[in-house]
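INFO  loader      accepted 1 record
INFO  loader      residues=414
INFO  predictor   begin
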Amino acid sequence: MYIIFLNLLFMQTPQPSLEEAIQVPMVLLDVAVYSKNGQAVMDLKLDDFVLKEDRRKMDILFFDKVQIMVPQESSDSKTDPPTITKIQSKMHVILVLDLMMLHPMKQIEALKTLEEALVHFQNDRTDMACYDFHRGWLVKPYQDVATNLRHLQDYRENLQQVRGRVDRLESGLLALEGDFETCVDYRSIEGRINCLNMTANSFIFQQEQHSRQVMAELRDLIQQEGTGPKKLSHLFFISNGFGLESIQSAHALARVYAQKAQGQGNIPERSPEDMALVHLRPKLEKDFRQLIDTCVRNRVIFHTFSPYQNSLSKHRQNDVAFASMSHGSVDRAYQNFESEMESGLLELADQTGGDLFRGSSLENNLIKALDRSRHYYLLGYRSPEGGSGEYRRIKLKVKRKRCEVLYRKGYYKK
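INFO  predictor   done
INFO  writer      dumping tokens
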């Protein structure tokens, strides 16, 4: 949670009618409201919002409408609500790339897709900084899109040189399935099952470590670059994802190969009890809580972008190495893995007030994310008394029908 005194806000949006609440600690909530066709809804009034915390209705003590306008835009007083606060400024976005767990070829494809999308934003008056988990800062401080494009192209060219020295380096379930193929070549059934156990649990442990690394790096990035609650920050996170729970798809795939190791042609949905596959249960709640708490205190909204859309299962179907193991159970394991890896992206966006964008149309998704970053409401209410460390759930509704509302779903009481 971030608690701020209203006198900090009054430097940006003076509201004399709220002067009596200047010294009241406030919970601030950035809210984006959109119609079903994706248009920003900016004509709502204070009475149109119903706000609850842990099912208790809260009185909204601070209310403002904000629109970030690029300098060449003109104001149309006939169409804009008269109470809107217009900020004449370029959009500033931090672009964060996490491509570490992708095959080098997939990293190159992802960067090329990003470049093609950013070409269309060169005249958008949006300035970006770009951070990559592997290379660190590619662009800093904020620069125009053309500068970001040049650095991304240099990054991709370096990866292409590395790719020429890589024979085969798969990641995710493709790599795991390759290791499972080695396990079933063991002579004894017991040796095969033990190999599958160790291989599956090693994979799950690696995924857990990756998730911890992603959350720790994002937290450190926000702490270094965060401006506190006085200014809203937007981070666009392009990633192949991270999980928040044990990777059950690895267990499912191990069961399939355990059946193959036992020489059974008919593969059931559930494994026999004597298969004894070990399940690890990573506890990532604390790491995720620390990340979200850092986002809330620094007033950060994440829009996340996932490349998945059954892409892993399609990639596997084209790999002749696994042609003999093509059936429904394996395909479902791949689809579940994509969902598990998206879970972190979905929760990160949901808990900070952003959105998860799926699919291959990165250009359209970036347009939507930028638009949702330019128009928002700012609500403030008194933080109820309570114990430190407890999670407070926020639920916000608008009375107007057929509207989509984006806002963070809670905070940890300090």
